[in-house]
Write a structure and sequence with these properties.
The protein has helices at residues 6-12, 22-31, 49-63, 93-107, 127-130, 135-141, 148-152, 155-162, 169-172, 174-189, 201-215, 252-260, 264-274, 279-291, 297-311, 313-326, 337-345, 360-367, 373-381; strands spanning 18-19, 35-40, 67-72, 122-125, 191-197, 220-224, 237-238, 241-242, 349-353, 385-387, 390-391, 409-414, 418-425. The mean pLDDT is 92. Helix 16 (313-326) packs across helix 17 (337-345). The protein folds into three domains: 6-226, HUPs (Rossmann fold, 3-Layer(aba) Sandwich), CATH 3.40.50.620; 227-330, Tyrosyl-Transfer RNA Synthetase (Orthogonal Bundle); 347-426, RNA-binding S4 domain (Structural Genomics Hypothetical 15.5 Kd Protein In mrcA-pckA Intergenic Region, Chain A, Roll). By secondary structure, the protein is an alpha/beta fold. The strands form three sheets. A six-stranded mixed beta sheet has the order 1-6-5-2-3-4, sandwiched between helices. A five-stranded mixed beta sheet has the order 9-13-12-10-11, sandwiched between helices. The chain is built from 19 helices and 13 strands. The relative contact order is 0.09. The longest helix has 16 residues, at 174-189. The chain starts with 5 loop residues before the first helix and ends with a strand. Its EC number is 6.1.1.1. Catalyzes the attachment of tyrosine to tRNA(Tyr) in a two-step reaction: tyrosine is first activated by ATP to form Tyr-AMP and then transferred to the acceptor end of tRNA(Tyr). ATP binds at residue 237.
């Protein structure tokens, strides 16, 4: 079967929210290799899954024969794109430089930087062409091409202007800096397309306008949609915060769980945007979701694909083993300490003191699995109490050192679906 045109594939995957002239972009893509870029600002020590969408979009262009440039904003990261509600906290230069390095290392696995391919990806830092630029030169060569009225019309700017806090000149000028990136990348590498989230559309088109004014060349911009949950809330956030790509900030197990808990209404959207599965595979998974939602085949495929992409197949296997073991379908003792700790972090847990010699009744009540001691005793009598997947039949049962997983944890379960973790502290 013939592969679809890149733009048709992006459209089918729901990845085109806004664009300059799509017909012109199609003609340029068909005429030969196009160089494009997408940028990320180092405002944290890790990228999150919103950034992953942009990197995968670059990768789709590269797979179709085009040359991607991944820009990490060592300069723009010192200022920050205007937030809708408040002024950004400016980070120390050394901190930002360290984050630049971390983000660069994170994105490398998603693109092909090999010297032996004609469309090898490039990794650039906009501090390289911004740091030596004088204020006078920037105002004369860049600032004169911008009209304040159009800049004020940008939603993030207008909202801040209407707030009590207002907006600083530094954040107001961010649009000029990002536009200058496009101009420099056009001059240095012949870059003619910028991609980014639709919330960046004003910045993307400001870049095309600047290049047109300075160089007389019409370039392209393509905005991807902001992926949200079914209720419209921002995608990539959980109750505990952002879903990071860094395993130290979001464990591979928690990362896997985020995807496997996707709502039925949105799982097809996520499969199209975040995986390399074919149209036929995704269509079949969408059909299964509609006909047999309880099987959650699409969620499992999504969790496997994205976790493998970010953390590797071994972490997928660990996450799946932990999920099975927590609910009695695998061996808890076979999980490594990091995976077990991450899995317990995703279920209710509490700390008990060893010196108090808690019984199974105490543990069931303390963990919240039972509402009281009477309920705990009934659970035990009915055969529904488990510790580390072993049934507990005596109300007087107390954990021994040999019962502790990695010397500290117990996993309690009431019935098949209700689990909790207990950390035994003290000696």
């Amino acid at each position: 079967m013939t592969a679809p045109h890149l733009l048709d594939d992006l459209a089918w995957r729901g990845l085109i929210a806004q664009s300059t002239d799509l017909d012109a972009l199609r003609r340029d893509l068909d005429a030969g290799m196009v160089t494009l870029y997408s940028g990320i600002d180092p405002t944290a020590p890790s990228a999150h899954i919103g950034h992953l969408l942009q990197w995968l979009t670059l990768a789709r262009f590269q797979q179709a024969g085009h040359r991607p440039i991944a820009l990490v904003g060592g300069a723009t990261g010192l200022i920050g794109d205007p937030k809708p509600t408040s002024e950004r906290t400016l980070n120390d230069r050394d901190v930002v430089a360290g984050w630049v390095d971390k983000l660069g290392a994170q994105l490398r696995p998603f693109l092909d930087f090999s010297d032996d391919v004609p469309n090898a990806a490039l990794l650039v830092n906009n501090l390289d062409w911004t740091e030596g630029l004088s204020t006078l030169d920037f105002l004369r060569d860049v600032g004169k091409h911008f009209r304040v009225g159009r800049m004020l019309a940008k939603e993030a700017v207008s909202r801040r202007m209407e707030s009590d806090e207002g907006i600083s000149y530094a954040e107001f000028s961010y649009q000029l800096l990002q536009s200058y990136d496009f101009l420099e990348l056009y001059r240095r590498y012949g870059c003619t397309l910028q991609t980014g989230g639709s919330d960046q559309w004003g910045n993307l088109t400001a870049g095309t306008d600047l290049v047109h004014r300075v160089e007389g060349r019409s370039l392209h911009a393509l905005g991807t949609p902001l992926i949200t949950k079914a209720d419209g809330t921002k995608f990539g956030k959980t109750e505990s915060g952002t879903v990071w790509l860094d395993r130290e900030l979001t464990s591979p197990y928690a990362f896997y769980q985020f995807w496997i808990q996707a709502e039925d209404a949105m799982v097809g959207t996520y499969l199209r945007a975040f995986t390399w599965l074919s149209h036929e595979e995704i269509t079949e998974l969408e059909r299964l979701t509609e006909e047999k939602p309880q099987a959650r085949e699409a969620q499992r495929a999504l969790a496997r694909a994205v976790t493998a992409l970010v953390h590797g197949e071994e972490e997928v296997a660990r996450a799946e083993a932990a999920s099975r073991a927590l609910f009695g379908r695998g061996e808890l003792g076979e999980l490594d300490a990091a995976t077990l700790s991450a899995a317990i972090a995703e279920i209710p847990s509490y700390t008990a003191e060893r010196s108090e010699r808690p019984t199974i009744v105490d543990l069931l009540v303390g963990s919240g699995l039972s509402t009281g001691r009477g309920a705990a005793r009934r659970t035990i009598a009915e055969g529904g109490a488990y510790v580390n997947n072993a049934k507990i039949e005596s109300e007087e049962w107390e954990p021994a050192d040999a019962d502790l997983l990695h010397g500290r944890w117990l996993v309690l379960r009431r019935g098949k679906r209700n689990a909790a973790g207990v950390e035994l502290a003290g000696t």
